[in-house]
Write a structure and sequence with these properties.
Length: 412
């Protein structure tokens, strides 16, 4: 029995470059950074004072006012990006099809802002100061839950929480649900918003974050020898996936086909990648096997590319080991150089970017690559976006705990 084919018919995007697919994509292609000084709170007492904040998002554009206070910001973003994706796809969920349309949205951390806010309220005023909506605000599956409620999607409903691989795992699991005939359409991706004192302090003491506070726009520099850590960002990337004939029957515009999903575990360390990028390499190998294509068919890799020493070197090593000579012919770029690292939303946002790169035949650049690390010797599309034919894109996401997820998109 042949696998059901899955296509992408809708996109929604919220990034530090702006709200909406058009605004974010134009900024990405122009090589603009979304990184700046933290304005969400007073960061003057923390060594890290920069982040990728979304400053133009208005929840009222997507959510009824009385519902806004029931959701933390990562849910606002998820509902907003899902609304964009649904409008883009033109998909209407009628009662007779509701049980065949599902939602899977991942987040790495979820409602940490609500936890910090109501913990302080509890300490200062007791239990009566805690909102009755506190729990629904913070739990990760309420992104998918609120999207399903808004659109009446009664099919498979789930949430992944696999650190920085959450978005890719959600999309991959949604892909599998359609392949297995458990759904005809899925709303899927990732969302995150945890630019808070506790989160920034936590990543800071791990020495994971850049401290280039005086030059925020230049702080995220994947594959550059002067990189000193990643930058926390926030946002959401949501896609509408459909079974091919389901999309064709309603005359949907098809962006591309999702042809493969790979997963692996490092079984090595809670935060560091496995030596030589062994787990990442197996994950990329598994996605090629799942899609049944040769490595030479991949034109572009949207790298995990976090701007940390170990990730960038080991991801490069894994690509070279798997793709051999072709590794030096394909393009690799890290859009985290502009967005920062959106944690659980990274996979969703970068999946949308991967689809747009193929749709527009433009590969976004890796900005700030002024002095390449000698260990990072691939074509990282430095500084400037590149117009070129793109027919097959691999999107990588690797998370703490050694959890890895890869997606493969092909021109339809």
């Amino acid at each position: 029995m042949s696998k059901r084919r899955v296509v992408v018919t809708g996109l929604g995007l919220i990034t530090p470059m702006g709200t909406g697919v058009k605004k974010s994509w134009e900024a990405l292609i122009a090589g603009k950074s979304g990184i700046g000084k933290i304005t969400r709170f007073d960061a003057s007492n923390i060594p890290v004072q920069i982040a990728g904040e979304v400053d133009d998002f208005e929840p009222l554009d997507y959510i009824h006012q009385k519902e806004i206070k029931k959701m933390d910001r990562f849910i606002h973003f998820a509902v907003g990006a899902a609304t964009m994706a649904m409008e883009d796809s033109g998909l209407e969920i009628t009662e007779d099809k509701a049980h065949r349309t599902g939602v899977m949205v991942g987040s790495g951390i979820g409602g940490l802002p609500a936890i910090e806010r109501y913990h302080e309220a509890y300490l200062n005023g007791g239990h009566r100061k805690v909102s009755p909506f506190f729990i629904p605000m913070l739990i990760i599956n309420l992104a998918a839950g609120n999207i399903s409620i808004k659109f009446g999607a009664k099919g498979p409903n789930s949430a992944t929480a696999t650190a920085c691989a959450s978005g890719n795992h959600a999309i991959g699991d949604a892909f599998r649900a359609i392949q297995r005939d458990e759904a005809d359409a899925m709303i899927t991706g990732g969302s995150e918003s945890v630019i808070t004192p506790l989160c920034v302090a936590g990543f800071n003491v791990m020495k994971a974050l850049s401290r280039r506070n005086d030059e925020p726009e230049k702080a995220s520099r994947p594959f550059d020898v002067d990189r000193d850590g990643f930058i926390i960002g926030e946002g959401s990337g949501i896609l509408v996936l459909e079974e091919l004939e389901h999309a064709r029957k309603r005359g949907a515009e098809i962006y591309c086909e999702l042809i493969g999903y790979g997963m692996s575990g490092d079984a090595y360390h809670i935060t560091s990648p496995a030596p030589e990028g062994e787990g990442a390499g197996r994950c990329m190998e598994s996605v090629l096997k799942d899609a049944a294509i040769a490595s030479e068919e991949v034109d572009y890799i949207n790298a995990h590319g976090t701007s940390t020493k170990f990730n960038d070197e080991l991801e490069t090593m894994a690509i070279k080991k798997l793709f051999k000579d072709h590794a030096f012919k394909l393009a690799v770029s890290s859009t985290k150089s502009m967005t920062g690292h959106l944690l659980g939303a990274a996979g969703g946002v970068e999946a949308v970017i991967s689809v747009l790169a193929m749709h527009n035949n433009i590969i976004p650049a890796t900005i700030n690559l002024d002095n390449p690390d000698p260990e990072c010797d691939l074509d990282y599309v430095p500084h400037t976006a590149r117009e070129t034919e793109v027919n097959c894109v691999l999107s990588n996401s690797f998370g703490f705990g050694g959890t890895n997820a890869c997606l493969l998109f092909r021109r339809f």
